[in-house]
Specification:
The protein is mainly alpha-helical and about 200 residues long. The protein has helices at about 10-30, 35-45, 60-85, 90-105, 105-115, 125-140, 140-145, 150-175, 180-190.
């Protein structure tokens, strides 16, 4: 009789990542509120009770998906900003490209990050910290404008304009309302605008 070996930490991490991947797809396709733990298990071909060994509830899985997304998103934007030589305009364009690349490479997770809100989003736990990190990354543009002497209210308005434009362009392209490449074109147009002027 064969005896199954205990799962290693790597095995556990891989399984939880796979579970989160499947859940992210189901949440994005059907709405998080319409997906049960049983459906997630069924899509994975595992026992209905297995997910409960790793997550207490569907909402905990949703939070895990979003934490992972926000952390990866922030890391990619931070890396693009740090690795790009030149001034703030060049860095902002690099971060914009990283934003778009992340969104399309992780479409299901991206939707859940910004279209779903949980109570823990503004808390001091892991989800709140991940949301705050991503928000701080997105605030770099406004922070730089303020440092250059742009009035705070205008700088924050410009920051919101850039973020809203990028997010809107991404969502329109994802829904096939606009043709492929439209989000990158929107970013290029933003780069041509003199948003940094007082």
């Amino acid at each position: 009789m064969s005896v199954s070996r205990p799962l290693s930490q790597d095995d556990l991490a891989r399984f939880k990542a796979e579970l989160c991947d499947v859940a992210a797809r189901l949440f994005a396709e059907h709405g998080a509120e319409n997906v049960s733990m049983r459906q997630i298990a069924g899509a994975m071909g595992i026992s209905p009770m297995t997910p409960y060994r790793y997550f207490a509830s569907r909402d905990e899985i949703l939070a895990a998906v979003r934490i992972r997304g926000f952390e990866a998103f922030a890391a990619e934007l931070e890396q693009a900003y740090a690795d790009t030589p030149g001034g703030s305009a060049a860095k902002a364009m690099a971060a914009g490209r990283a934003y778009i690349d992340f969104a399309f490479a992780n479409a299901n997770t991206y939707r859940l990050m910004f279209e779903v809100h949980q109570q823990e989003d503004s808390g001091d736990g892991a989800l709140g910290a991940a949301v705050a990190r991503a928000r701080a990354t997105l605030s770099v543009y406004g922070t730089e404008l303020i440092a250059r002497g742009i009035p705070r209210a205008r700088a924050l308005a410009m920051e919101t304009l850039v973020w809203s434009t990028l997010h809107g362009a991404v969502m329109l392209e994802m829904s096939r309302t606009t043709p492929p490449g439209s989000a990158q074109e929107a970013l290029a147009l933003l780069g041509q605008m003199k948003l940094h002027q007082p």
